[in-house]
Each structure stands twice: as structure tokens, then as C-alpha cells.
Amino acid sequence: MKILIKNGRVVDPANNLDEVCDILIESGKISKVGKNIKASAEKTIDATGKIVLPGLVDMHVHLREPGREDKETISSGTKAALKGGVTSVLVMPNTNPAMDSAENIKLLQQIIKDSAKADVFICGAITKGRLGQELSDIKALKKQGVVAISDDGASVDSDKLMEEALKLARDENILLISHAEDKTLSNKGVVNLGLTSTRLGLKGISKESEYKRVARDVELAEKLKAPIHIAHVSCKESVEIIAKAKKRGAKVTCETAPHYFSLTEEAVLSYDTNMKMNPPLRSKSDLGVRKTKKISSLSARNSGLSAWKLNSLWQSRS
Amino acid sequence: MSELIWERKDLLGLEDLSREEIEFILSTAESFKEVSSREIKKVPALRGKTVVNLFYEPSTRTRVSFEVAAKRLSADVINIATETSSVKKGETLIDTGRNIEALKADIIVMRHNYSGAAAMLARHVNLSVVNAGDGWHEHPTQALLDIFTLKEKLGKIEGIKVSVIGDIAHSRVARSNIWGLTKLGAKVTVCAPKILIPPGIEDMGAQVTDDVDEALHNADAVNVLRMQFERDESNAFPQQLEYFKNYGITEERLEKAKKNIVVMHPGPINRGIEMSSEVADGANSVILEQVTNGIAVRMSVLFLVAQANEFIKKNEDTN
């Protein structure tokens, strides 16, 4: 079967392409990209005035299954992803049970096989139960098919354990994704620490709670020559640490999410819990840094897509 | 006339209010104050209205004050203590609010341990919501009665110097006082050990010091907050005796201050911790007058929000 997409603005960074042209698809594969393609296709899509993108990859999603199917499932989450043009997702391991063993990964793979609407890649847990106490069998996770490991939602507090995990990930050739947060500093905070937290009378989350942990993780990875990826970076200090390390040749990448460079902490001043997230929305100056050239050192952006039940918004976060 | 100045169905905090609105509550309170000195302490202003006190945190002074205020306006008052209510069965705040609305009540007066709870409730019900303290956020009627008392004692608010001393970080009273007093032109200094000064408080319009003698120097009034030792999770609070030694308001310290300095406290007092008994009961103390003035201020607030809500509803009916 042939499909012809006509007159769309085709944006394809991998091929350095951004222009209005046509795309011809034959038997499920793109066979031609160019102006005024003449072909007799069974289906022609008029994309005039529209943007045509390659399938997007969201490398940081929470699909909640197994364990919290009341919030989201593999099926509902991947359906939503497709609606937004995202065709591949990397699911974080903070499910119940956590993705910390080959058996649990197997269980999830079966659910994906049965119900996923988009491509789903699995991120395993660095430590058992994501508790930061005992390493998962990372070799076995890799063998079962995870492409990355992370304790997302929690940071590995022990330097020693983090070091061992980085070594194993390096040797197994999988990416370690760091959720950088020192919880003794963020201490059950809910909004950015500063005037906003003071005005609202809410506990604040300092930037230090993020960037000090970023600094530690980047330093460990650099020493071990291990690749590391820092998830959902929210403040300029973290970006600076990462950019400097990258310049020195460290194998560090990071991502941020659209809300961190389009919204500031002021959005939360009306106690709108839709604007409450972890890490929290930061100040105007953090927004500014992300708009500068330093953004080029960020290698990915995620949606932070995670579903919350409406009635749990008021009281919970994690 | 009042509709033009006061159009809010709720009172959630002083941050949102204009100077004119605050002054209007205070002047309305002045006219209500006299009611409490009558032989028959009652006016029919809210006859037929129902006020529900919904308290999720322990309170004596504020709850009783609101109850007395509502009764002196001839409203019917219902008290809900959440310890013995359906909240214990897991009912959400919004459901509780909607049920109270279905009972055709007119005003909910709410105290809640979560900052922002009053704002959220007000978004979900059409009846009036009066914030009687939400978390560390605001306690608007306390600040209004503090300002009312200061105005009575000092004759004006514009230009006066007020020091707020104590646990600023965890205090809704401090925040409401800063907003209210600075809007009316007073100079506010907050004073506490550094760990109890929240970040960014200067940007709310307050000066900051950790030296109590500096805070007392030249101040026209001092508002002494209760030390909330029960809130200490950091184990970094000063010890009680250490706090009294360094920050406690004593006669000795007051000797170096202005002779007529007004001493306030929102209660309940920890005697011998944030102030000595001699000061609490001394000539400069207006602590019990604050309690009396609280009735007039709360009568004013209940009256104004009820009137505004009636006006809003009438407008909706005619549109």
C-alpha cells in the first residue's frame, strides 16, 4: 500500500530538514521525501498548513502499570502518547512492584505486548524496591531487556552504591538515569523555596537539593568514565554543572521538560495543584538560562507525563 | 455604598485586599464594637443566616470569637469539630463544603492545617468562606483585629513601626500582619532566630533582624508570636530557656523601648517563653483588648461577606 502525504511542513532534525514537501510511504516505509512527488497512492493525505514530524521519543514517562491502574495504564498512556505524536516512550520503574527484577520486567513486557499502542521501552530500577539500600541484579535486568536504569522518584543517597551502579551500567552498556534530589534538603517541600513558598506558607524545595546531587552524580560518572543522564533538570545551577562537565569530556546528558522553560513558580501562587510538581517550577532566572545557548547542551526533553488521580492531587506527590 | 468597596463573597487573606478594602472592614468594625457594650448585645443584621464553624485544627479563641460575633449579629451558628465528624470517615474537604452548602448555610468559617485550604474550598462552593487560619499561610481576621487594636491605641497606622517577634517561618499571623500593616503604611520589622526567618520575607515588605533589642528600639508596637515548638521537625529550634533568654519580652527589655510601646500577642501565651508574665499582665499589654476587638472585627467581616454574596446572587438572578 502506498500513502502520500502532501504539502506538509516536514521537520526532521536528523536529516537537517525543515521545508514544505511531500512524503511517500510504501509498504510501511518512507520511500521518498521531496517536492511535488507524483505517485499513484491508495491514500493521499493533504497536510497543507500542518507540521509533519518523525515519531517522537519521550524518554521519561510514568505509565503506572502494574500497581496503579486507577491512575494510568500502558494502554491509556500509550494512546495519549500517540495523540501527541509520540511513538516511543521509556517507562520509569516506579511501579508496584518496582521494575527491579527480571521477573517483574517479564510481567511488564507481557502487559506491553498485550496492550501497548506505541513502542514502550523499559527502565529498570537501580536498587531493589527503589529504596536505595541494595542494588538490583543489573546484569539480569539488561539481559531481560531494559535499556536504562534509574530509581526515578528517588535518588540513590549512598555514594558507594551509586558508584557501583554506575560501574555496572557502564559495563553492561546501559544508561543510568539520575533523579537528582537530596531529600534531606527538599524535606517534603512542595514549591520552589523562596518568596513563593513564603507567600504561600508552604514548605519549599531548594535548588541545592537538586544541583548538589547533580554535582555528585556527574563527578562519580566522570571519574568512572561512565555515561550518565540527568532527568528533569529544573534550575540553572544544574545546567551549568552539566555543561562544564560536558566541556571537559564527561559522558553526561540531560533533559528538561517543557514546563521548566515555559512556566515559573508564579503559576502556583493561586494554589493551582496542576502547577505543583517535582522538581518544582523555579524562578524567572532559571527560565532565562534555559533559553540561552546552554540549551544546546541538553540532549533531550521529556514531557514528564505522569497521571495523577484528581482526588490525590491535593495531598500527595512523589 | 458598601457594595462598591466590598464586593467579595470570601475573606481568604489580606494579600489580595486593597488598602480601601481593609480600611472599610475596620470602619465597619468600629460601628459594630458598640453592640458588645449594650445591655442586649444583639443586632438583627444576619437574622435568618446560618454560619458554620468548620475547624480542622484545635482553637478556642478564634472559634468562640466567631461564634460570639455571629450570634451578636443574630445568625444561627453550628460548630463542626472534625474529630467527631464524617471527616474521620474520609470525607473530602470539598464534599464536606458542598454538604454544608446543601444544608443552605450561608457562611463557612474554616480553620485548616493546610495552607491554601480556604482558597480551594471557596472555589468549590457558592456560599461565603472566611479563612480562620490556613496552615502557615494567612489568618486575616487576627491581623485585622491586631490592626484595629493598634489604631485604637495609637490613633493611626500610617507611619507607625511594628515589630513582629517569634516564629515567623511557621506563622500565618505574621504573614497577614505584614500584608495588612504595610498596605496601610506601617513599617514592619520581623525578628526571630535566623532559622525561623523564611526566605524572601523582605520582598513581602518587612525588614528583618535577629536582634530583639534592635526590633524593640523605636518600635511603637510589638506583636509577640507563640513559639510553636510542636512544629519543630528539624531539631534546630532553640531550647525554650535559650529562646526566652535571647528573645523573650521582659520588663528589663521594655525599659529600653518606647515608654508607651503597645504589647500584643495573638494567644495562647507560653508564659516565660516568648514573654514574661509581668509583661503579659503589665500596663503595656493589650492582649485582652485584642480579644474583645476580635468580636467587632469578625462581626464586620461576617456582615460584609454575607451582604456581598447576597448582592452577587441577586445580580445573577436578574441577569
Secondary-structure map:
The complex is a heterodimer of chains A (318) and B (319).
Chain A: E1 2-12, E2 17-26, E3 29-34, E4 43-46, E5 51-52, E6 56-61, H1 74-83, E7 86-91, H2 102-115, E8 119-124, H3 138-144, E9 148-149, H4 159-172, E10 175-178, H5 183-186, E11 191-192, H6 195-200, E12 204-205, H7 208-224, E13 228-230, H8 236-247, E14 252-256, H9 258-262, H10 284-291, E15 300-301
Parallel strand pairs in A: 1-4, 1-5, 6-7, 7-8, 8-9, 9-10, 10-13, 11-12, 13-14, 14-15
Antiparallel strand pairs in A: 1-2, 2-3
Helix pairs in contact in A: 4-7, 7-8
Chain B: H1 2-5, H2 19-33, E1 50-55, H3 61-72, E2 76-81, H4 93-102, E3 107-112, H5 117-124, E4 128-134, H6 140-154, E5 161-165, H7 172-183, E6 187-191, E7 207-209, H8 212-216, E8 221-224, H9 240-247, H10 251-255, E9 262-264, H11 277-280, H12 287-318
Protein described:
The complex is a heterodimer of chains A (318) and B (319). Chain A is of the alpha/beta class and 318 residues long. Chain A has 2 domains: 2-51, Roll (Urease, subunit C, domain 1), CATH 2.30.40; 55-317, TIM Barrel, CATH 3.20.20. Helix content of chain A is 31%, strand content 22%. Chain A is built from 10 helices and 15 strands. Chain A has helices at 74-83, 102-115, 138-144, 159-172, 183-186, 195-200, 208-224, 236-247, 258-262, 284-291; strands at 2-12, 17-26, 29-34, 43-46, 51-52, 56-61, 86-91, 119-124, 148-149, 175-178, 191-192, 204-205, 228-230, 252-256, 300-301. In chain A, strands 6-7-8-9-10-13-14-15 form an 8-stranded parallel sheet. In chain A, strands 1, 2, 3, 4 and 5 form a 5-stranded mixed sheet that branches. In chain A, strands 11-12 form a two-stranded parallel sheet. In chain A, helix 6 links the parallel strand 11 and strand 12. In chain A, helix 4 (159-172) packs across helix 7 (208-224). In chain B, strand 5 (161-165), helix 7 (172-183) and strand 6 (187-191) form a beta-alpha-beta unit. Chain B is α/β, with parallel strands linked by helices. Chain B has 2 domains: 19-139 and 294-311, 3-Layer(aba) Sandwich (Rossmann fold), CATH 3.40.50.1370; 140-290, Aspartate/ornithine carbamoyltransferase (Rossmann fold, 3-Layer(aba) Sandwich), CATH 3.40.50.1370. In chain B, helix 3 crosses helix 12, helix 6 (140-154) packs across helix 7 and helix 6 (140-154) packs across helix 12. Chain B contains 12 helices and 9 strands. A 5-stranded parallel sheet of chain B has the order 7-6-5-8-9. Chain B has a 4-stranded parallel sheet with strand order 2-1-3-4, with helices on both faces. The mean pLDDT of chain B is 94. The A-B interface holds A 187, 193-202, 204, 270-271, 311, 314 and B 15, 92-93, 114-116, 119-120, 134-138, 172, 175, 198-201, 203-204, 233.
